[in-house]
Amino acid sequence: MTLRKPNLSDAPSIAAISIEVWIGTYLKFGVSPFFANYALNEFTSRKTEAFISDPTQFVLVSENTEGIDGFIRVSSGSIAPISGCSEMEISTFYVQPRHHGKGIGKRLLNAALVYAREKEVESVWLTTNAENTPAIAFYLAQGFTQIGETYFRLEDEAYLNNVYSYRLA
User: Fold this and answer.
1) Which of 153, 149, 117, 123 is nearest to 136 (CA)?
2) pTM above 0.70, yes or no
3) Are 127 and 161 spatial neighbours (Cβ–Cβ below 8 Å)?
4) 1 in Cβ contact with 62 (< 8 Å)
5) Would you say 147 and 165 are in contact if contact means Cβ atoms under 8 Å apart?
6) What is the pLDDT of residues 32-77, one digit of tens each?
7) How buried is 10 (Cβ within 10 angstroms: 0-12 exposed, 13-18 middle, 19+ buried)?
8) What is the dihedral of CA 94, 95, 100, 105, to 10 degrees?
9) Neighbours of 98 (CB within 10 A)
10) What are phi and psi of 106, to 5 degrees?
């Protein structure tokens, strides 16, 4: 397993992982056109190329002998949905489910936290769906603390998300 910064040519792989993880995590009973349209419009190669190229985004991929199996994106200048957070967000953190438990997530997260420390921020924050029990357990085990709640909004629908913070200082 190698961690590295992505190239623009990695955008399709990152977009595919995003679709796989998002659908597998949040759509438990089938894929409706509503959610399919969201996933196919949100997780595109073009949008992925844009954040890979954006200097306010720190992106790392995990790569095995077959290809990319996970990635993390840290966004600078992100305003948290609750007060008391820095402007540094772990905005996307996906590892293919078949690779869970192999240490990929820990390595990606640790590299992101090293990056954040180098930027001298006091903390990083993230949100996750309040029903995503495996992710919540992972974040708590890594030292994150739940500090509030917010909602992920998709058109007229709202889904409860927890807000977590990790103190660096």
Assistant:
1) 149
2) yes
3) yes
4) yes
5) yes
6) 999 999 999 999 999 999 999 999 999 999 999 999 999 999 999 9
7) buried
8) -80
9) 9
10) -60, -40
